[in-house]
């Protein structure tokens, strides 16, 4: 495929504004912030890779709650990053897996035909996506493109929370809420891989799933309030925040680490209020209260590729949607009852 190169400024894709004579692709496009119904399936120009970029022919892309926040522009604070009046990138989606279609002149580690997975901030719910080469790694042998697409953001969040933020060590007691969700299903497996004794909190219908991921103990939140049990945990990754911080801290050891990890909250500042509360409280207790923002890191994706290769981590796919039904996928994710990941096949 002959792909000319463009500067970074040029390569930003303007929905609906395909260049005269340029090759086009199908994409899920949003012209304004709004609900999933605002997504349109459109023909747009195939983006052109800059010098350090890779053009990926997308095989599959996954979506997560953050994609929904960016699409709706709520909480409003996300607009400071993604565009004040309308989304800066007309195509939603961040995670992807697929085949390298073309590379920029500075890219030497990848070549057309390579199978890769990773993340892009310029939109992945499309037939092609432009991705900085540093955001991609090779898909492990024996892993499907669909499974690979499910990994990047959710698994990197779980890995960073458990390794960088909590420094989980063998034998520690780790509790994961939302253990059946995108982040939680990876967190249970990663904590086990680190040698922890893992407790997963989920609803009745997901008890078997969470046990199958390796959890040593499962708490069904419809029957038992984990904050009212006698057990104490060295690390709590709270992906749901169904309980107040004070209640969760009751079951944290005196020097344990609590990571409040819900992106939900009020419509203006979302989780920022809770983040500030946790940070302020941190100054008055030996317990470590550590909200954090996950970042795309190639080294972490390589670590995850190893865990996938050894079979210590296996993605859980809940539902798949074709690209033309991407709005349904985002609607489903927004409802908050995902079991593992939701993947869009392209
Ligand atoms: N810090 C960061 O940078 C970062 C990065 C990524 C994600 N996040 C945040 O992490 C959170 C989790 O993301 P996700 O992708 O895992 O969400 P998700 O895929 O929607 O999963 C949520 C899971 O929680 C379960 N659940 C609901 N209520 C529960 C409760 N009271 N106790 C235990 N489990 C419950 C749901 O299943 P049932 O309803 O069937 O129980 C579902 O399986 C989100 O708020 C997201 O915004 C933060």
Topology:
Layout: H1 8-11, E1 24-29, E2 40-45, E3 53-63, H2 65-72, H3 79-82, E4 95-103, E5 115-119, E6 128-132, E7 136-138, H4 145-149, H5 152-165, E8 173-177, H6 182-193, E9 197-202, H7 207-212, E10 217-220, E11 233-238, H8 245-250, E12 252-260, H9 272-282, E13 288-289, H10 298-309, E14 317-322, H11 326-334, E15 341-345
Residues 64-66, 153-154, 157, 177-178, 180-184, 201-203, 206, 221, 239-240, 242, 261-264, 292-294, 336-339 line the site of NADP nicotinamide-adenine-dinucleotide phosphate.
Describe it for me?
With 346 residues, this protein is α/β, with parallel strands linked by helices. The protein has two domains: 24-151 and 316-345, Alpha-Beta Complex (Quinone Oxidoreductase, Chain A, domain 1), CATH 3.90.180.10; 153-289, NAD(P)-binding Rossmann-like Domain (Rossmann fold, 3-Layer(aba) Sandwich). 26% of the residues lie in helices and 25% in strands. The chain has eleven helices and 15 strands. It has helices spanning 8-11, 65-72, 79-82, 145-149, 152-165, 182-193, 207-212, 245-250, 272-282, 298-309, 326-334; strands at 24-29, 40-45, 53-63, 95-103, 115-119, 128-132, 136-138, 173-177, 197-202, 217-220, 233-238, 252-260, 288-289, 317-322, 341-345. Strands 3, 4, 5, 6, 7, 14 and 15 form a seven-stranded mixed beta sheet that branches. It has a six-stranded parallel beta sheet with strand order 10-9-8-11-12-13. Strand 9 (197-202), helix 7 and strand 10 form a beta-alpha-beta unit. The longest helix has 14 residues, at 152-165. The chain is globular and about 65 Å long. The chain binds NADP nicotinamide-adenine-dinucleotide phosphate. NADP nicotinamide-adenine-dinucleotide phosphate (NAP) binds next to helix 2, helix 5, helix 6 and strand 9. Residues 34-344 form the Enoyl reductase (ER) domain. InterPro entries: ADH-like_N, Chloroplast_QOR, ER, GroES-like_sf, NAD(P)-bd_dom_sf, Quin_OxRdtase/zeta-crystal_CS. GO terms for molecular function: oxidoreductase activity; zinc ion binding.
């Amino acid at each position: 495929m002959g792909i000319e190169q463009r500067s970074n400024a040029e390569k930003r894709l303007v929905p609906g504004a395909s260049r005269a004579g340029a090759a086009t692709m199908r994409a899920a496009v949003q012209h304004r912030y709004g609900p999933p119904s605002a997504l349109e399936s459109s023909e747009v120009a195939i983006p052109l890779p800059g010098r350090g970029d890779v053009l990926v022919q997308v095989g599959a892309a996954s979506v997560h709650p953050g994609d929904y926040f960016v699409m709706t522009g709520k909480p409003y604070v996300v607009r400071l990053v993604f565009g004040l009046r309308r989304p800066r990138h007309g195509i939603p989606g961040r995670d992807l897996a697929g085949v390298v279609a073309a590379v920029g002149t500075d890219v030497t580690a990848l070549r057309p035909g390579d199978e890769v997975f990773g993340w892009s901030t310029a939109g992945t719910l499309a037939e092609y996506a432009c991705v900085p080469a540093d955001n991609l790694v090779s898909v492990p042998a024996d892993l499907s493109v669909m499974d690979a697409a499910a990994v990047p953001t959710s698994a990197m969040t779980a890995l960073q929370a458990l390794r960088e933020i909590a420094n989980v060590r063998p034998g520690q007691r780790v509790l994961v809420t939302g253990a059946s969700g995108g982040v939680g299903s990876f967190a249970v497996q990663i904590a086990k891989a680190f040698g922890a004794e893992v407790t997963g909190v989920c609803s009745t219908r997901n008890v078997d799933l969470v046990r199958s991921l390796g959890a040593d103990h499962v708490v069904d939140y419809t029957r038992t309030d984990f904050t009212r049990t006698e057990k104490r945990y060295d690390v709590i990754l709270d992906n749901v925040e169904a309980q107040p911080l004070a209640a969760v801290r009751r079951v944290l050891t005196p020097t344990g680490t609590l990571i409040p990890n819900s992106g939900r909250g009020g419509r203006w500042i979302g989780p920022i209020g809770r983040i500030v509360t946790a940070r302020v409280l941190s100054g008055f207790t030996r317990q470590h209260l550590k909200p954090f923002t996950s970042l795309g890191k190639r080294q972490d994706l390589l670590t995850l590729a190893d865990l996938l290769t050894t079979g210590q981590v296996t993605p859980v796919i809940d539902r798949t949607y074709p690209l033309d039904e991407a709005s349904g996928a985002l609607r489903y994710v927004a409802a908050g009852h995902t079991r593992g990941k939701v993947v869009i096949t392209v």
